[in-house]
Design brief:
With 335 residues, this protein is an alpha+beta fold. The protein is 39% helix and 21% strand. It has a single domain (4-328), classed as Beta-lactamase, CATH 3.40.710. Strands 1, 2, 3, 7, 8, 9, 10 and 11 form an eight-stranded antiparallel β-sheet that branches.
């Protein structure tokens, strides 16, 4: 495996953990600008794919047809926490598309904000598919099917016309041949694709560039503006994407995926990086992402301070005592 050590964790003066991964930094021309480890490492895109999965609906003018607001476009890109604001937006989307939540095939789980905020769900709480972190994306899927008169029951089948359209447009955005994709099934039961990190970064550089993109300009502009305008809907309270996009002051389009993947694009620069931590440690992922931002020169002093909790250099125990350090051990290299 051509992976680099990215983050080391020490306790006392002894190395305890070492997190390996890879980083790829690209621009909208597809030029590799910097790397750590193998920039073409093949990894499942997981939830970083959501903005790209929305492309067929965006290209078909779906939001205009159904009257989806900017907030609801953000929800199609979201891995939300199941807070009240998220559920309200999903229900409004369903209502506009004339759908019942029971049409969603994403499954149900306890809203993530409970575990994130160390809360216990009420004993009488009832959850359904709308509380799934991917319900906004799935509602967009269903709206596309309504728009095109397609069957709803099988909308997650890889051979369904919706999923074929998604595969086509993701390949176009990533600059790949769709036949080269390796497919798997995501946690929400939707098809997901493994891409080289470099192709994922390229797609996000294009997404962040918005109207400047010659192929998907209007769709990319609408999606990236919705994400940066409503990062609270894309993620939720105390979540990484919310913190990163707020720190980016409207310039950074950020999306985290499960099992240690993150992509972040800069609108002003027309550049993006994709990063994967191979052992899926999310604290190491966030620390490495902040370090990448710093090494690229994308941080000013205020942003560096704002993202300090996500860098989490000092490891504290439950009493708040410092017991170790989490430090970056990589330097981005030019290809």
């Amino acid at each position: 495996m051509k992976l680099a050590p990215l983050i080391e964790l020490s306790r006392g003066d002894t190395l305890e953990c070492l997190h390996f991964g890879a980083v790829a930094v690209l621009n909208t021309r597809g030029k590799l600008l910097a790397q750590a480890g193998d920039p073409h490492w093949l990894t499942f895109s997981r939830s970083t794919l959501k903005a790209l999965q929305a492309l067929p609906f965006m290209e078909a003018q779906g939001p205009a047809q159904f009257g989806f607001s900017e907030e609801q476009i953000a929800m199609m890109c979201a891995s939300h926490s199941g807070e009240d604001a998220h559920i309200t937006q999903v229900q409004t989307m369903l209502d506009k598309a004339g759908l019942n939540y029971k049409a969603l095939r994403c499954g149900c789980h306890v809203p993530r904000f409970y575990s994130l905020l160390e809360l216990t769900p009420p004993t009488d709480a009832v959850f359904d598919e709308r509380h799934n972190n991917c319900s906004g994306k799935h509602t967009g899927f269903l709206a596309y099917c309504v728009q095109h008169g397609l069957g709803l029951d099988s909308y997650l089948d890889p051979l369904h016309p919706l999923q074929q359209a998604i595969r086509r447009d993701v390949a176009r955005a990533a600059g790949m041949d769709a036949n080269d994709f390796r497919m798997g099934i995501d946690g929400c039961s939707a098809p997901n694709y493994a891409l080289p990190l470099s192709r994922l970064a390229y797609a996000y550089a294009r997404l962040a560039s918005g109207h400047r993109d010659a192929e998907f300009g209007e769709s990319f502009a609408t999606l990236s503006e919705a994400m940066t305008a409503h990062p609270d809907l894309v993620s939720g309270t105390a979540r990484n994407d919310l913190a990163f996009m707020r720190a980016g002051r409207g310039d950074w389009v950020s999306k985290v995926g499960a099992d240690g993947v993150q992509v972040l694009g800069s609108k002003s620069r027309g550049e993006a990086f994709a990063i994967k931590i191979i052992d899926a440690n999310m604290q190491a992922l966030f620390a490495a992402s902040v370090e990448v931002l710093d090494q690229l020169g994308w941080l000013d002093d205020a942003q560096r301070e704002e993202l300090k909790p996500w860098r989490a250099r000092t490891i504290l125990n439950v009493r708040g005592l410092p017991v170790g350090e989490r430090l970056p051990v990589f330097k981005l290299q030019k290809p």
